[in-house]
Amino acid sequence: MTGRPDVPPLAAISRIRNAQRIVAVEEEGERAGLRGGQSLSDARALAPDLDSFDHDAEADMALLTSVAIWCDRYTPLVAIDQPSDAIAGGCGGLFLDISGCVHLFGGEQAMLDDVTARLRGAGFAAQAAIADTAGAAWAAARYGDRRIVEPGDQLTALGGLPLAALRLDPDCIDMLGKLGLRTIGCIADLPRAPLAARFGAQLLRRLDQALGREEEVIQPRLPTAELSSEKIFAEPIALQEDIERTIGLLAANLQPLMDARQVGARRLELRLFRVDGKVAAIEVRSAGPVRTPDRIQMLFRERIAGFHEDLDAGFGFDLIRLNVLESQERLARQDDLVAGGDAHEAFDSLVDRLGARLGVDRVLRFASADTHIPERSFGLVSAAGDRPDSSGFAVAAEAPCVLTRPLLLFDRPEPVEAIAEAPDGPPVRFRWRRAVYRIVRSEGPERIGAQWWLEGRGGRSRDYYRVEDDEGHRFWIFRHGLFGSETTHPKWYMHGLFA
Amino acid sequence: MRRDQAKQTIGILRDAVAGIDRRHAGVGGAAWTDGSADGGVGFGFPPLDDVFEGGFPAHALHEIRCPLTRDISAATGFLAAVLVACLKDRQGPVVWIADPAARLESGEIFPAGLSMFGVDPSRLLVIHPAELKSALWASDEAAGCHDLAAVIFHLRGNPGLCDMTATRRLMMKARDSRVFACILRQAGEEEASAVATRWRVQARPSLADAIFEGGIGPLRLDLALERNRHGRTGQWAIVWNHRSRRFEQVPTHFVDRPALPFDRSHGAPQKGQVVALDRAS
To answer: Checking CA distances to A236, which of A221, B55, B70, B111 falls within 20 to 30 Å?
Structure first.
């Protein structure tokens, strides 16, 4: 952060090792000799007018994450380097794996300049470096004078840097310092076994990682998209129609790639990079593999229409990327000469549109479950998921003699006040939803036992009755618990309505 | 804008005039010529089939309503019975759109019960929109999809959104894409709309079961065809025989009171109003 003229320096403080210590300080304060880790009383001695506030680690992390999201514009592999007290200088940062991306930005130097210039433009005091290894880049960004470390040149570039550049424990650095070992060059060629015995394996691991003797894997924040296509705009775009046209263009770029792999997209993501650094992500799912630009365009159109407000374009988007997050194999299909196309194309497209506009969890199909408890015997699952060959339901060719199951079911049985013969007679009259029903006919009971293998001993059985009142309304009503053996005051519930 | 409205009004009036003309020409005289009468479905029940020349015009928008919430199961039963007839020779899924307000009172469709009735639940695509506006949008989209066999739009009461314009659009889409579209209106009044037929359903006490004397007999309904663009209206007391999956006449000696005149929807006005009483405790 740049200093503010005419105001005292500002520091974020936190309680570390039983003292109020500085976590971060303004540039202005650094000039006065303040630095991180200093206790607040020491700092006040140096700068009596120091202004301080409590450090908010979560807000820091959120800010770092938002920068990481923004960095997706350079490479899909962005990892967050978590801030840590256990590392000297571990104030957090980002690792960007730029293998294979450099040429898109006109070389390493141009890319580095672009990153730092844009971040500085957004108000960050950003430092960046490019190197073969994550460790070397970490060191060069914080302590180095060369921003780009040539391939294989880590030792000469880092040799003169202090040991703190190795992401080490501060105590370990102190101990090494007492022995006169202050730079990376000092320990690089020392015999390894005594070093490891004296200072632990971590020292050598960090050294090897920095110098490229040992592989270090960064953990990207997001899984990489299977396929991705993007467009950078010299002039930011903001109009809905422009965005839609761009989606079409990007989808058209993806189509040959998907065709070559014989896949279609099941889950797509659109990332809109706003000029001011905000990144919006819109995700859509489809019922079947889609590949044509107009289907993809339609999915996003419905999804955006499903938001109750327009996309907040701000000053416009300067980069739009379309990712295929999940794909499915498409069988190379021979089109029917007569019908001329897929028989279910229109239905799949309908499911996609409904899912995109209303949300995939609102477009459902029945799935059966292996239980005899009525409300759990079926489920409504998203129709956008894989469609099984059989849902477990069938219509018997021979119609049943008695309709034993209602047409409408309450997923939570509703309590009723019923008058019934003890111990196990059907209800004579009951009150449900503040109305009284007089039972004329009844059939039952049908006993459905509790699932003792799931619920344990305490579960109560249900005695279901099919009843009809004097006006011809039919109900599925049950007594919860057997009179005598399970309860003395069985409760009655309304569970369904028969036609 | 005003011009459009005027055009629409004229269109509605023309429809009404055409309807009157047809009625005067008699049932047999005027064939419905714009092709909407295709998709004729037979119920296998002469009193109902006689009303529709060339079969029940399934590829159109229909409405089944029950004035009271407690009759929703009877109305759903009648709809399921109509679905059985419509889906007999028709492949394709059924989209069932349930308005949240209606679902709250009526519960969910129970697949086990539906399959006993004769409709395959695996053909159902159930839509649970968050509000009525998106429910209407979803029915509009579904009615335009020619892969479907049927679209059911379950709603409650008479919301202003589902007006003449909306039903007209649904009607035209259903006709063009040859889909059976039906509004299932729970606790709703009669209202002007563009539906081809409108049925009023009321549950009646069942008759003794043929097999089990003391048990509950098959579904018995008071059915009124309140509106029919293709011919006569009428009123019947019918029974849905779930074993043969057809409608049947109620045996005459069981008719315990004369049927109401069909053009009078509520019969004699009730004295006072029926209100729900508060809980005693």
So the answer is: A221
